[in-house]
Amino acid sequence: MVLIVGAVALIVVNIIILSVNSSRYSSYGSGRTAIFFIAPFQATVTKSVQFFKNIWGHYFFLVSVAKENDNLKKAINQATDKNNKYREIEISNFRLRNLLNFRKTMTNQVLVAEVIGQDPSPWFKTIIIDKGKSDGVEKGLPVVVPEGIAGQIIDISYNYSKVLLIIDRNSAVDALVQRTRARGLIKGQSDGRCLSKYVLRKHDVKVGDTVVSSGLDGVFPKGLRVGYVSEIVKRNSGIFQEVTVTPYIDFGKLEEVLVVLDSPKHDFVSEQ
Amino acid sequence: MTYCFYICVCLCLVIFQTTIIPHISLFNNFYDPLIPFICYLGLFRTARESILFILVLGFLMDNLSGGPFGLYLTTYFWLFIVVKIVIQYVHVNNILLLFVVAAGVLMENIIFIAGVSMSGPDSQFSAISIRTVIFQILWAGCTGFFFITFFNHIHKKLEKWFNGLIAEKS
Fold first, then answer.
1. Backbone dihedral region of A29: left (phi > 0), alpha (psi from -120 to 50 degrees) or beta?
2. Integer Cα distance of A197 and A59 in angstroms
3. Is this prediction's pTM over 0.90?
């Protein structure tokens, strides 16, 4: 009985104290002591937990960063690839625009063809183009580019043709020195240049002069550029001078050409 | 099967020679890659099996090239004959393989220079031709052996596979 009364009294006292304390904060100095002893442990444990939490978090963060890095690298590669493609398109566009402008300046009917192959032997200079008999190409037609004369069709199939370049030893173009109208026959040489043969000694030819087609060979239209004079040799004897002509065209980089479909054709029999 | 292999290899080599090599400056003076193939046929295959193919190949190359017709035909035919004669006296070993392609390239160049010279003199010809021939022979000396070994290895593998296939079916 006494125990029950004591317990009830304790509960009542407890409630009273709680209700009094709940109205204002008071630690009576013991709080400071508790903090003094406990806080360092709390701090240590909390810091440790934070440390491990950070390691764990950073690990995952690094994994995600590594993944992100991989993705960014991929994106950069794709962008670089795309950039290269655009640059290639830009160059191609410039080249084709150039070809188109040249085409507009030409009065002849021309056909654009793409170079698809080169001669298997380094001794001969021919190219294969993707236009043939089906496109109206015929044997003997001249092939030109904006820089000048490229060559002549020597063989045709239904869809493809073979072009003999002017730097081949078997090629010949009747040409004039633009400034003085000195005539000569342009023949290909092994070193990628041409030799203007049969130019008379008395004719005035200087290094740097432009050489153009004369149109007298009945193949190439008149006035198309062939190259420029890069060397002149006048021997002590002989009536001709040796004139080396360097073509304006870089034949190693030839990608598109124009086939002149209505080139001048001379009927030599009827002319006589 | 053998002819299929020949056609595939030659097609690859011709396309490589006419479209890829001209765009790589390192290979400016590279030799004709069909030479090691002709040498391979001469060294390891029978004349009966190879001769017709070599003639067709020579004909094809002559049509692709701007040179006088018959240069490739002549070169390939005589190269094959020479290799066949050589192996009657010399045992086929690695040392022979090292030199046979270079010798073949030299032979091709001699025939070509002779063919080109027929069309008239050229003041720049000798200097450029010597340089080209030297580079081609060096290339052939360095890579010819690998070409022949590769052809031989692939052909043997294909024959083995094909024979196994036939045996399985029968």
1. left
2. 79
3. no
Asked if B124's CB is within 8 angstroms of A193's CB, the reply is yes
Q: For position A24, what pLDDT does the model report? A: 62
Residues of A in contact with B17 (CB under 8 A): 120
A106 is written with which tokens? 């030409």
Across the A:B interface, residue pairs with CB atoms under 8 Å apart total: 68
Residues A99-158 have pLDDT tens digits of: 777 777 776 788 888 888 888 888 888 899 988 888 888 888 999 888 889 999 988 888
* CB-CB contact of B36 with B101 (8 Å): yes
- Residue B131, sorted as left (phi over 0), alpha (psi -120 to 50) or beta, turns out to be alpha
Min distance B84 CA to chain A CA atoms (Å): 25
Whole-angstrom CA distances from A165 to A37, A118, A251, B97, B119 are 98, 11, 8, 37, 16
- Which of A1, A262, A16 has the alpha carbon at shortest distance from A140? A262
Residue B25 CB coordination number (10 Å) = 7
Rounded Cα gap, residues B18 and B16, in angstroms: 6
Instruction: Give A42 or A94, the one with higher predicted confidence.
Output: A94
From chain A, the residues in CB contact with B119 under 8 A are 169-170
Q: From A118, which residue of chain B is nearest by alpha-carbon distance?
A: B18
Contact assessment for residue B107 and residue B75, using Cβ atoms and an 8 Å cutoff: yes
- DSSP, res B84: H
Taking each helix axis from N to C end, the angle separating B47-64 and B71-89, rounded to the nearest 10 degrees, works out to 150
Q: Do A258 and A216 meet the contact criterion of CB atoms below 8 Å apart?
A: no
CB pair distance less than 8 Å for A169 and B116: yes
- Residues A169, B122: C-beta atoms closer than 8 Å: yes
Complex ipTM more than 0.85, yes or no: no
CA nearest A153 in B: which residue?
Answer: B66
Q: How crowded is residue B41: how many other Cβ atoms within 10 Å of its Cβ?
A: 25
